[in-house]
Design goal:
10-stranded antiparallel sheet
């Protein structure tokens, strides 16, 4: 299926995440000046280093006591000078959070830049999440049947003999070597009060614990993008495509 290119999108966040685990000494060695300088080629702004206090509780089965161990962990936060994305790195994860997203090539270029880090760590999980937050201009309830396919709208049409405040459905789909968690439905910005302005969520969260060599991360992302795009197109209607093409407003 060929990717459809629209003039606009309703992406609130696009989040890429890699999970791993290093002790503090390994993490300090990883985040050398050379590493920082390399990252700043694409994420130009480095915020002041954050130090986080962690408390771990362990149960001693012999004495039946609970012991608390405290340690410090460091967090590096980089930002693009355009304000489009943040890169957060600590001893357990690397996260890129895009708040303005144009296309997947931007993400892939950022991933390629990070390959020199990926080659030095043992990755336990990779994830990619697209959060579409479809928010109308006007207030009031929206006839979402005009825009969203009925196949994911069924639970929002059940007669509960009351007023629907919000309805978010969660579905987990297993593919060959990855999972997509799909969340969809009406989000009430005024919850728990009555709905005064609707928003519809289409949230696709792909992840894999079956990690292949780091050079395959890019291929994994491309595969996820194809499948998520296929599902997105399946769940929207022509009237919503008109909005995405800039021919009408919601």
């Amino acid at each position: 299926m060929e990717k459809v290119i629209y003039k606009r999108n309703f992406l609130k966040n696009v989040i890429f995440r890699v999970d791993f685990l290093l002790d503090e000494r390994e993490f300090e060695n990883l985040m050398s000046k050379t590493t920082l300088d390399e990252i700043k080629r694409r994420f130009e702004i480095l915020e002041p280093l954050q130090t986080i206090q962690n408390t771990n509780f362990m149960v001693d089965v012999n004495t039946r006591t609970i012991n608390a161990n405290q340690n410090e962990s460091k967090k590096y936060i980089f930002r693009k000078k355009e304000g489009t994305a943040a890169l957060i790195i600590d001893s357990q994860s690397i996260v890129i959070d895009y708040t303005r997203y144009s296309d997947s090539e931007m993400l892939l270029e950022d991933i390629r830049m990070l390959n020199f880090i990926f080659s030095k760590i043992s990755i336990s999980r990779v994830g990619l999440r697209y959060i579409n937050y479809i928010e109308p201009i006007r207030f009031g309830e929206i006839d979402w049947d005009r825009y969203i396919d009925e196949s994911i709208r069924a639970s929002q049409k059940i007669d509960f003999e009351g007023s629907l405040l919000q309805s978010i459905n969660v579905t987990d789909i297993k593919y060959e070597d990855y999972i997509i968690k799909f969340q969809s439905g009406i989000h009430n910005q005024n919850f728990p009060a009555d709905r005064i302005k609707d928003a519809y969520v289409l949230d696709f969260d792909a992840s894999s614990n079956e990690i292949k060599p780091t050079e395959d991360i890019e291929q994994m992302i491309k595969k996820w993008n194809i499948q998520i795009n296929k599902l997105f197109e399946k769940f929207i209607k022509p009237d919503f495509r008109e909005i995405l093409n800039g021919n009408s407003e919601l």
